[in-house]
Write a structure and sequence with these properties.
2 domains, seven-stranded mixed sheet, Aldehyde Dehydrogenase, Chain A, domain 2, six-stranded mixed sheet, Aldehyde Dehydrogenase, Chain A, domain 1, alpha/beta
Amino acid sequence: MALALKHANLNPRKLLIDGKWVDAQTGKTFRPINPATAEPLCEVAQADAADVDLAVKAARRAFDEGPWPKMNGGERGRILFKLSELMYARADEIAELETIDAGKPISESRNVDVPVAAEVIQYYAGWASKITGETLPSRGESFIYNLREPVGVVGAIVPWNFPLLLAMWKVGPALATGCTMVLKPSETTPLSVLKIGELALEAGVPPGVLNVVPGPGRAAGNALVTHPGVDKIAFTGSTAVGQEIMKLAAGTVKRVTLELGGKSPNVVFADADLEAAARGAVAGIFYNKGEVCAAGSRVLVERKVADELVEKMKGRAAKLTQGDTLDPKTRLGPQISQAQLESVLGYVAKGKSEGAQLALGGERNAKAGPGFFLQPTIFANASNEMTIAQEEIFGPVATVIPFDDVEQAIAKANGTRYGLAAGVWTRDVKKAHKVARAIKAGTVWVNTYNLYDPGASFGGFKQSGFGRELGSAALEGYTERKTVWIDLA
């Protein structure tokens, strides 16, 4: 099946190491699969430990000997701003790569992922000249001050659900602070990130500052985490893999930031605008086909309006168009792979067996195309103890759970090992503030869901990780604080 690409091409891709496009040392390549067609795309060089070693050494040289960390912050900012401008200019091409690689509808890639990713780079371009230390109150005959210096070589590992956007969440603050980076995109979705590597060189990022090495996690990812030349690991992915990264990084005592899984509650009270809440609940779970770490996968709803909300959600979800992801009318893409589709279907079967009421969907949608499409799925009358309410499904499956009062809503919202995000729907401002404070989550949306801003920090509580992406808070993860004492006696 020929792809109707208007802007992108499917030429073979190589690794970006030290400012050059190179083959993997083994000569190995792989071909990512288009989730909408189940057909392979272009050949991509496959990095392993030897390639990661070359990339880390290049990043180390660029940090220890190169101009980037010594460069005036304003100069780094101008280069990053140029990169953001190139991303805006090539948005159509990048969006097509993101769509065919990750299975996103082109409307999402073009209107959300690419412009927001460019905005993140633009935001940190502004920060590059504004990272300052502090002068401290003197103690006797001393002058004391703090410096904030780049942490060094950063190893960034990003997942397949938002390959472009989550990479830029790390590239932006790392490069703005003067760090150098080895970026490992998922071997499932390398194309958009490799394109950013190309644009970074065009923008004037010096060789070795940004290296891109797609490859399997066990080979390339583990090599990056354990490499003694890497000073910090920035990871987004599952909690299970995050736990392994912590263990591996302990050997070299690396700084680690982890943005991990979630089972986020979307709490709807009876006094909410139910039309808006239904719209928010549907967007919260079906955006990006449910492959979102902050997805509102648990819809907690006050019992007296539970049936009404489920009906409103069903009406909206049933209208989501599935099909060709390059068609602007498509609203719900396929799961990333056959394995992920089977995993989600396994959770659907588990939900049925444990007594949840299947209100909508629950089956593969073969009519949408040959890819890995799953019907939008809603379970009603579930309990918070069910598997589908406790484990991250990472698919378009909403679990609706009734509650009776505010205290029970808070208890259920906090009743998982995760704490990444949450939503609260109510017209009562006091209730909104009370519940937002009580929920243990890094982000709480009130009467909305899934909004992001480059200046608003994002990260998790509990087993959803630690450290923060975005905003000024992210800069802490890429800088070291140094205290200097000057004796004036």
